[in-house]
Specification:
Blueprint lengths: L1 H80 L9 H12 L4 H6 L7 H16 L9 H21 L4 H24 L1 H11 L9
Helix pairs in contact: 4-5, 5-6, 5-7, 6-7
Length: 214
């Protein structure tokens, strides 16, 4: 009896195991199908939201461009209507051009537009420009020997006053020696080619005559 019962029970148990395994497989398949469907829905929603965002961004960009276009045209028209301001190195030309505009202003405003409060670099430019005008053969003459000598003389004057206050500025002293040597060579050339202009420069710029020893 025991020999007959055990195979029957064993066979019945294996059949139940097979049924439960098949049920579990079916359940896993359904769950996988449901997960795939959920993922597809999510992907569709993300694509739809991205398309919506891109359309909204393009619409906002178009609206911004449409609003900026009239502003840009108005700014361009206003800029064309503004007065063109000029820059002058000579204070007399500056006052001749801007004088009528600041004549009715307060003394404080007039002082702001004067050269008395300018930086030392700007004052040096004004001084050099005046020295150039004295020896220019034409308005476009910026490199003739006389003009170069006048420019170097004004630079030497400023560097000399600077070194009186800063005696240990060896870098500036070296630059000053280079400018003096360059001016000496130009004076020597001008003495050999145009002696009258050479004497005129010596008298107006208060320069000592160069010697023949070097």
């Amino acid at each position: 009896r025991l020999h007959c019962v055990r195979p029957c029970e064993r066979g019945r148990g294996s059949q139940e195991d097979r049924e439960s395994a098949s049920a579990e497989m079916m359940l896993v398949g359904r769950l996988a199908a449901a997960a795939a469907a959920t993922a597809g829905v999510r992907a569709g929603l993300s694509r739809a939201s991205a398309a919506t965002v891109s359309s909204v961004r393009s619409a906002s960009t178009t609206a911004a461009a449409a609003t900026k276009a009239p502003q840009a045209s108005a700014a361009a028209s206003s800029s064309t209507q503004k007065t063109v301001h000029q820059d002058f190195e000579d204070p007399q030309q500056f006052l001749a051009f801007y004088g009528p505009l600041i004549s009715g202003e307060s003394p404080v405003v007039q002082k702001m537009f004067s050269a008395s409060i300018a930086a030392q670099r700007d004052l040096n430019k004004i001084t050099i420009h005046k020295a150039m005008q004295e020896f220019q053969a034409s308005p476009s003459d910026t490199g003739s020997p006389s003009v170069q000598i006048a420019i170097l003389s004004k630079k030497v004057e400023y560097m000399t006053s600077h070194l009186r206050l800063h005696r240990k500025d060896l870098h500036s002293r070296r630059g000053l020696m280079g400018m003096l040597e360059k001016r000496r060579k130009l004076l020597k050339y001008l003495r050999d080619t145009d002696f009258a202009t050479y004497n005129k420069i010596l008298s107006q710029l208060n320069i000592r005559p160069i010697s023949n020893t070097r």
